[in-house]
Amino acid sequence: MKARAALLAAMLGAAAAAAQDEPRRGTIRGSVDVRREMPTAEDRPAVGAVGMAPHHAAPDRRKSVVYLDTAPRGAFELREGARAVMDQRDETFVPHVLAVAAGTVVDFNNNDRTYHNVFSFTKGSRFDLGRYGRGRSKSVRFDRPGIVRVFCDIHSHMSAFILVFGHRFFAVTDALGRYQIDGVPPGTYTLVAWNDGQARESRTVTVPETAGVEADFVLK
Amino acid sequence: MIRAFVLAAALLAASGAGAETPGPAPVRLTLGGEVSLAIAPQDPTFFNYTDYEYNPLRLARLGLSGAFRVHDRLALLGEVRSDNLGTPRAHALYVRIRPWPQRPFDIQAGLIPPVFGAFARRSYATDNFLIGYPLAYQYLTAIRSDALPATAADLVRMRGRGWRPSFPIGSQEERPGLPLVNALRWDTGVQARAGSERFELLAAYTTGTLSSPRVRDDNGARQVSARIASRPIVGLVLGASAARGAYLARESTEGLAFDADNFLQQAFGLDVEYSRDYWLVRAEGVWSGWDLPSIGGPWVSGPLRARAFSLEGRYKLWPGLYAAARVDHLGFNRMQGMSVTWDAPVLRVEAGVGYHLRRDVLVKAVYQHNRRDGSRRRALDVAAVQLLFWF
Lengths: 220, 391
Prior knowledge:
Distance between the termini of chain A: 18 Å
Strand order of the largest sheet of chain A: 5-11-10-7-8
Number of helices of chain A: 1
CATH superfamily of the largest domain in chain A: Immunoglobulins
Structural class of chain A: mainly beta
Oligomer: heterodimer
Shape of chain B: globular
Structural class of chain B: mainly beta
Low-confidence stretches of chain B: 5-25
Radius of gyration of chain A: 18 Å
Order of helices and strands of chain B: HEEEEEEHEEEEEHEEEEEEE
């Protein structure tokens, strides 16, 4: 709960840290090594079913989100028209974790041969897109910073995270766990690494005026 | 019937080879559960009772289910339930086998889910939009498996008294009558499933019958049941079911010149489901017939027949909030020489709303109207609420 509150505060960008008008901007890069045991996505026991459930893909839970806990003043740049995509493929949300700036419209494409019904009961971001089939897409605009849990009403094993930020200083790690946040004004910040709602670690980093900074995380 | 199923299953399994493969088996044990509490006023009319003690509108249920995957071809599944804080009992306990990993063909054996119809496999509170059950799967008719009317008049005297019919032959204990299909208890036996995304074929060979599923055999006979389902387009499911088995217990025919295993329950079912956007509509019809021995006049002529039809729908009004309704009718045939049907026809209308406090917490509120064309207590109007938590 504390971690969630801290993340929300960061996303709201409540604390301003650095100078308003900085001509130079730096880069924060590094890696996130997720060493905790990953829970395997598994259906609830389908006792009422006759036969084994069809195969579905496993979500990629190793991807993490790295973000500034204290955003620079003036960092609230809501980009109108920004769009992102969260596919529904092989009964899995792809990507499993999506990080977007507030104001972004997320398209939920259905690429499966079955119906999906995307919904969220996250406070402030409740939505239900109803049932729709292959080739169709429905969209939701996320205006409120926070963590949005996304589910499918038909397939209980399907879930995903959408992290909505009030600033643009965040990044999702790649397949090797690397990340890079560009355009950071010089200053001292709290940098946070977050994984799958289960692990979170923060550290202080100072971005100099003339160079970037490296910050590696190990999440257990 | 069995031969036809085996042939069709083989064709379906062969045609679906490679289309459906079981996933990797990294998880050995998965657990789930459902806790529900339904509150309603007393029901002196017994419209909703499944037996003397259990009424879905007044039921506290704790269910714990588990699946243990021994191998990617073999799993053990079970569910334990406690109703109204009573002694926990096994609701399901069976082994699931997939003989050929690449073929969509599965075998299950033990205390298994029913293959007949659509509702019985989704009678969980999480799957039921409302609180009450469809009449075909819950309402107690006036016939019993362990006691027999000597004459047609004995049976007609029990019209509309399915919660406690009594007859002169067989058991003299007070026990409830039989529903068309019992959704509260599962049967024991072996079943097979073959299918693809478009077509699915289920068949079962069990100890009890639709009306009277059993763990222990009581008549030496078996039931054969089957279902075929088709999904011609996304969102549409069409199903047809049939079952045939001896339902009378040996004790009901002791001392008579009849063998219990000669008296069959035969049933047919049709079901359809269509969903799109915020709508989901289901309709189901069940036709059942029970043979009864003719012992004295006026004779019980021909099989006793019952037909049930239900139509239900759900519409999502708002994220987490839905409205649902079900209209349900249960009718019976008339025996030769009798001026009334052998049991009293029933009409039920249930409507309500459900709201998700969280993804895994749902509260429902319903209003239910029941009308019965017979017995002293002919109508019931009742409101009920249910709180449900699942994990």
